[in-house]
Amino acid sequence: MPKDTLTADQIVRAAIALLDEEGLDGLNMRSLGKRLGSAATAIYWHIKTKDELVRLAGDAVWDEIALPDLDTTDWRTATTAMATATHAMLTRHPWLGQAFGSHLLYGPNKARVDDHTLALHERAGFTPTEADQAAATLLLFTLGAALGPASEIALTRRLTRNGTDARQALADTMTHAARIAASYPRLRERIGTTGYADAPENTFHFGLHAILDGLTARLAQHTTEH
Fold first, then answer.
1. Residue 104 to residue 100: CA distance in whole angstroms
2. 132: closest CA among 121, 123, 140?
3. How far apart are CA 145 and CA 83, in angstroms?
């Protein structure tokens, strides 16, 4: 693709696909240029650095989050929908959680989601400060919940690059971990049943609704005080 027909949007979309496949460590201008059918130098006409490319890609994926209509959706339903969509997006793009800790990320798509999140909490009856706290709590929980799947993908990718049979390595590790866990009664009960070190099914939704129960209780407390 010649540089005069290459657009910044095309570059960002190709970068997202490359990041999804190879992770942050696999993103470089040469590989991206090959994917685009263009010389790496053509990319620099639009995006100057890898950090800038990660920032743009990291903001673009937030456009995947649908914003519920706050005039027709109650705050708890809206919050559940947005948190669930964010968790799914982070799972689809496991590099984003890592990028939060290594890059400065900002942009209009993330700002759009943040503003809508604050609006739905303020409409529910939270003060602006409480809305900030509720939004931050939900985002931190959602990021943490997506960390497990993302870490497994990143670890598998790293082991494979080093020539290791990732599946066998993970199986061997769990065998050793289970032997250690067998010395502890509650962990021993779970070996062979729920699976040692496996997250219980529906853990994300359990945690999300526990947080929402707490926020609902705080709203009820506001009503009682007033």
1. 7
2. 121
3. 11
180, 202 in Cβ contact below 8 A? Answer: no
Q: What do you get for the CA distance between the two ends of the chain, in Å?
A: 64
> Looking at residue 165, what is its pLDDT?
84
Residue 198 has φ and ψ, to the nearest 5°, of -85, 135
Nearest to 217 by CA among 140, 132, 141, 124: 124
For 87-115, write each residue's pLDDT tens digit: 999 999 999 998 988 899 999 999 999 99
Q: What is the largest CA-CA distance in the chain?
A: 66
* CA dihedral of residues 130, 131, 132, 133 (deg, nearest 10): 50
CB neighbour class for 118 (10 Å; exposed up to 12, middle 13-18, buried from 19): middle
Contact 59, 114 (CB under 8 A): no
187: which 2 tokens?
């962990």
Alpha-carbon gap, residue 173 to 183, rounded angstroms: 17
Polymer length in residues for the chain = 226
- Report the pLDDT value the prediction gives residue 2, as an integer from 0 to 100: 46
190 CB burial (10 A radius; 0-12, 13-18, 19+): middle
Radius of gyration, alpha carbons of the chain: 21
Q: Which two tokens stand for residue 78?
A: 């809206």
